[in-house]
Amino acid sequence: MKVCIIGQGYIGLPTAALFSRNHCEVVGVDVNEKIIENLNKGIIHIEEPGIADIIKIAVEKNIYTASLTPQKADAFIITVPTPYIVENYSCDLSYVVTACESILPYVERGNTIIIESTIAPMSTDDTIKPIFEKAGFEIGKDLYLAHCPERVLPGKILDELVHNDRIIGGVTLECAIKASEVYGQFVEGDLMLTEAKTAELSKCMENTFRDVNIALANELAKICAEIGVNALDVIEMANKHPRVNLHSPGPGVGGHCLAIDPYFIYAKAPETAKIIKLARDTNNSMPDFVCDNVKKIIPNGKIAVLGVSYKGNTGDDRESPSYEIIAKLSGDYKISIYDPHIENPDFVGLDEATRDADLILVLCDHNEFKALDYDLICKNMKNPVIFDTKNIIKEVPSEIKLFNYGNLFELN
Ligand code: SAJ
After folding, report:
1. Maximum Cα–Cα distance across the chain
2. 198: closest CA among 239, 169, 227, 241?
3. Window from 180-184, 312-316, 340-344 with minimum mean pLDDT
4. Neighbours of 7 (CB within 10 A)
5. Which of 11, 164, 160, 162 is nearest to 77 (CA)?
6. Which of 220, 248, 257 to mutate to test the pocket of ligand 1 (most atoms within 8 A of CB)?
């Protein structure tokens, strides 16, 4: 089987790696020339365990090629971003539409087209299907079209792509069957056949479930700061109940999924999707909550920010609330940033970041922050204070004052 994958990002590239590892010929298409040039040398641009080795071998064996333009193939998979439109929160399908149009000259009867990008309910039927129908194809007969959302955790993408169950949403049953043959090349989880619109809403709802639960944890953190209770203890105690799983509060919700997908549902039914919107608003309010508490700890001075990725142990900083927090604080404070997972000429090491700092502000739960060099920190900071918004630091020497969501009420 030959597969052409449009978009060589966090999902497209690992997917390409798995097809090529399973002896399928793969063409990985992207609009970024530099990325294509590097991929053809076997150099990858994302931080994700296991991918680099597979791509390197696949390039050497000539089974994987990166290209700026699509090629004829048996199956086409679209894995391009779907941001939301700021004015009305609806799903911006423009990259998906452009990707579909870009493959039109290469598509032939009998091919399977799969949209993996997260899209709002009804997008496949209302927007994507007509693109191929206008080109003269009858869907379900000449061409098979399906929406098969990815559902993987960054950092564990390879494993989850292989082992997770997969939703296969066909425009018709034939479309779903054809798409399941494509994933059958490497997926070991169940392939669950359904309609495209069910697949679309299931994917959006998975991430909404998490967003709403995180909002509940964030609201709890605010309540506890107000009424003088340790929020982290409450979560630990409540979670001993066999059917309770309170999530963790934090500086806000980032990433390309949880911070976006709930809006796709909200935009479809704004009068009805009340909890979904409120959860988004609550999570969006967390950067302000962090800044307000920083101001209570120190009114001015130097802050060493630790971690700007949207989540721990990844170099992905898309939609990261850290940047909003840094922007909000930078008027009143001198900010230096240390993030061992992100290459940025403006970022510095732990030593430089903490030198003469008045506060360490932890915004991300990278493993490196679990056990910091406290001797260095005590040497560099006159009165060492840490505000850990991710509860990654469990213990500090007695000369360091640690704030987290367990004791913010002390600042009132
Ligand atoms: N976060 C919290 N508290 C928590 C959990 C997470 O504040 O208790 C924050 C994180 O710090 C981060 C954000 O939420 O800023 C999102 O992190 P995440 O790990 O929950 O989710 P993603 O965006 O990395 O991955 C999700 C996954 N979806 C679900 O778990 C339902 C993944 O399976 C999806 O494939 C991915 O979105 C996606 O592509 O949609």
Report:
1. 73
2. 169
3. 312-316
4. 24
5. 11
6. 257
Contacts of 273 (CB under 8 A, 6+ apart): 265, 266
Task: Tell how far the Cα of 210 is from the centroid of ligand 1, in angstroms.
Answer: 7
Query: Taking Cα atoms as reference points, which of 162, 104, 168 lies closest to residue 130?
Result: 104
pTM: 0.92
- Torsion angle defined by CA atoms of residues 349, 355, 361 and 366, in that order, rounded to the nearest 10 degrees: 30
10 Å Cβ neighbour count for 60?
A: 10
Hey, what are 385's tokens? 């204070």
Measured from CB, residues less than 6 Å from any atom of ligand 1 are 118, 150-154, 206-207, 210, 214, 217, 247-248, 250, 253-255, 257-258, 310-311
Q: Which atom of ligand 1 is nearest to the CA of 261?
A: 40
Cβ(298)–Cβ(384) below 8 Å: no
Using the atom order of ligand 1, give the atom closest to the CA of residue 152: 35
Query: What strands lie across the sheet with 2-6, from one edge to the other?
Result: 64-67, 25-29, 2-6, 75-78, 112-115, 144-147, 166-170, 191-195
Q: Is 242 exposed, middle or buried (CB count within 10 Å of its CB: 0-12, 13-18, 19+)?
A: exposed
108 alpha carbon – ligand 1 mean position (Å): 37
H or E segment and range at residue 213:
helix 196-227
Q: What are phi and psi of 66, to 5 degrees?
A: -100, 145
Q: Hey, whose CA ends up nearest to atom 29 of ligand 1?
A: 207
pLDDT per residue as tens digits for the range 241-289: 999 999 999 999 999 899 999 999 999 999 999 999 999 999 999 999 9
Q: How far is the CA of 357 from the centre of ligand 1 (A)?
A: 31
Mind telling me the catalytic residues?
Answer: 203, 257
How far is ligand 1, taken at its centre, from the CA of residue 276, in Å?
Answer: 16
pLDDT in tens, 337-348: 999 999 999 999
